Amino acid sequence: MKILIIEDEIDLLHSVQEFLEQESYLVEFATNYETAVVKVLSYQYDCILLDIMLPGGSGLDILRLLKNEKKDQPVLILSAKDSVEDKVLGLEIGADDYLAKPFHLSELLARIKSIVRRHMHQGDHVISYKDVKLNPDLRQVTVGSKEVILNRKEYDMLYYLMLRPNKLMEKTTIAETVWGDNADQADNLDFIYSQIKNLRRKLKEANAQIDIQAVYGVGYKLI
């Protein structure tokens, strides 16, 4: 799961980044308005943590940009500006939630999980497809009653594909989602193949009713 932190307070940024990475999130960041705009328009994130006061512009303008561009990316506002007006305006523009600084990291994590559930799987804690169940909170995958042990990349790929069954996903999109935005600068995307191969093997060994189909030269889809 990929998170974008838009924050210019470097100590806070690093603290949140380290915490979320320990929770197995893939974290990208932007420290100013211009960089943030490039990232939100170029890539897709599971959740954006957005400060209102940024060098070069306002986080509220980023919200307006997302709305105008019809980019459905969940947003949690993080700001020291705790006035009712700022909160209401942010939510009216399109933010999903608002958390005032200072905050506890455990509360931040709970808010992120809640927002992602609402956007990605209609509030359910478990994602199901055929006989496979995936619990994002526990990072646990089961086929029937049997748990399937996956490494981090295998899990992240399965999670991404299970949210989009029968939909062809390009290799570049999978790479950016699982490995980060810099993955599109790689000379090739062969590193995806080995992870897909191992994931398919583990699902087959568990007699799962799903498989990952390769579409040569394009990408993969869950069938």
From TrEMBL:
CDD domains given in the database record: trans_reg_C
SMART domains assigned: REC, Trans_reg_C
SUPFAM superfamilies from the UniProt entry: CheY-like
Classification via InterPro entries: CheY-like_superfamily, OmpR/PhoB-type_DNA-bd, Sig_transdc_resp-reg_receiver, WalR-like, WH-like_DNA-bd_sf
Record GO biological process: regulation of DNA-templated transcription
DNA-binding positions: 124-223
Residue span, Response regulatory domain: 2-116
Domain OmpR/PhoB-type: 124-223
Pfam families, per the entry: Response_reg, Trans_reg_C
Record-listed 4-aspartylphosphate modification sites: D51
Annotated protein name in UniProt: Response regulator transcription factor
Annotated organism of origin: Sphingobacterium alkalisoli
